[in-house]
């Protein structure tokens, strides 16, 4: 058995420009040479990284060993809510999943389609745009604002807060991310206070039918949830509901255009589902999440001490040749059901993203409408990457098309 930390290759730095620009190449090397890697250059203890599909799937499937109690990012912080272990996680997940049932998600398709069409109307005549700024960012923000029941006019603040929160994951100091969280908490604390006043004056029927009302009126052990319990949930919904879906849409469009597959998907709508699922496998918006082990672990001859931060890489697992045929090729002929079942991009088991069906719906609508409305769509420059070592997607994606004369 090698001593803890000796599995480090000495070459993999998840924060380096080379890895941030091309994580897949770095992950390929990790899988082959160093499946349990220790990165010492973060905080006091650094963190470990798992890269093989079997290890990553088992990692996210065993919450008793790999706990969320100290957060799902690289810093040690008790976030609570959905970023906790059962039974606490189960308690908080129930009111959230009630807002993302198949029936409720399907009922949003018409509204999402109309909203996406309105966004495209705003730039279709220009011939050029930044897909992210004009479409891939505002669409998910408008959708999550509608679901939560907050003013769409505040969408600019939502995006700024989310960006700052995600960028804070690059810092070992919890205060960096805490500043962004304080702004989000302050905004929603005010809304919750006003909702409680309405509830006290007029009862549940006086409240709007949205997710905030569902959370506010839900009970645990015969009592309502407190702000301290609700705000971490809302934070996760806000960030997860826009950052990841923005990246899913932008990644899919970018990859299809880059590989010359866009026209095939545009002309064959039956391929849209395959394009979305293969994009999730090939370019997952979240590269991976963290857990903390509750006892010492030896994996591939490397000792991981109890209480270590460990990064399970969805992105690497999704391209492991032990799990996938031709993993480094983006293919539209893969079995869609098999992709949905085996890629890890939305999590595993009880930690499966509750908004997965909604994100898929938004991506399908986006690909279909962009194909219909923007003839001759093409890349018009290099994308700029999002500022987070845990995320994968463009922050800006220049595109052009044949605008009407």
TrEMBL record:
The keyword Ribonucleoprotein does not apply. The keyword Repeat does not apply. InterPro entries: Cyt_P450 (IPR001128), Cyt_P450_B (IPR002397), Cyt_P450_sf (IPR036396). Keywords: Heme, Iron, Metal-binding, Monooxygenase, Oxidoreductase. Pfam families: p450 (PF00067). It comes from the Bacteria. GO terms for molecular function: heme binding; iron ion binding; monooxygenase activity; oxidoreductase activity, acting on paired donors, with incorporation or reduction of molecular oxygen. Belongs to the cytochrome P450 family. This is Cytochrome P450 123B1 Cyp123B1. It comes from Actinomadura verrucosospora. The lineage of its organism: Bacteria, Bacillati, Actinomycetota, Actinomycetes, Streptosporangiales.
């Amino acid at each position: 058995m090698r001593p803890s930390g000796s599995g480090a290759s000495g070459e993999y730095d998840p924060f380096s420009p080379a890895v941030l620009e091309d994580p897949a190449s770095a992950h390929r090397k990790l899988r082959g040479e160093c499946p349990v890697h220790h990165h010492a250059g973060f905080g006091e203890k650094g963190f470990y990284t798992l890269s093989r599909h079997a290890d990553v799937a088992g990692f996210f499937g065993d919450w008793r060993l790999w706990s969320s109690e100290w957060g799902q990012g690289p810093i040690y912080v008790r976030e609570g809510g959905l970023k906790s272990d059962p039974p606490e996680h189960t308690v908080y997940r129930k009111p959230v999943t009630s807002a993302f049932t198949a029936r409720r998600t399907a009922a949003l398709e018409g509204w999402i389609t109309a909203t996406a069409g309105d966004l495209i109307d705003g730039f279709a005549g220009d011939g050029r745009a930044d897909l992210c700024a004009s479409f891939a960012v505002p669409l998910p923000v408008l959708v999550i604002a509608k679901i939560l029941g907050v003013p769409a006019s505040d969408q600019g603040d939502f995006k700024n807060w989310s960006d700052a929160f995600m960028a804070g994951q690059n810092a070992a100091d919890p205060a960096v991310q805490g500043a962004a969280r304080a702004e989000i908490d302050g905004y929603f604390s005010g809304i919750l206070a006003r909702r409680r006043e309405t509830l006290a004056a007029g009862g549940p029927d006086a409240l709007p039918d949205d997710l905030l009302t569902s959370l506010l009126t839900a009970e645990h052990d015969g009592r309502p949830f407190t702000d301290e319990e609700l705000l971490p949930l809302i934070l996760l919904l806000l960030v997860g509901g826009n950052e990841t879906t923005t990246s899913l849409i932008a990644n899919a469009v970018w990859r299809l255009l880059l590989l010359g597959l866009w026209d095939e998907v545009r002309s064959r709508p039956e391929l849209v589902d395959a394009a979305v699922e293969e994009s999730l496998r090939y370019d997952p918006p979240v590269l991976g999440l963290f857990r903390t082990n509750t006892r010492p672990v030896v994996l591939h001859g490397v000792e991981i001490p109890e209480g270590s931060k460990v990064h399970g890489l969805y992105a690497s697992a999704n391209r492991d040749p032990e799990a996938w045929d031709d993993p480094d090729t983006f293919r539209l002929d893969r079995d869609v059901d098999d992709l949905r079942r085996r890629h890890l991009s939305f999590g595993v088991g009880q930690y499966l993203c509750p908004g997965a069906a909604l994100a898929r719906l938004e991506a399908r609508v986006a690909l279909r409408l962009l194909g219909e409305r923007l003839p001759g769509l093409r890349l018009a420059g290099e994308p700029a990457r999002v500022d987070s070592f845990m995320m994968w997607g463009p922050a800006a994606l220049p595109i052009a098309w044949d605008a009407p004369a």
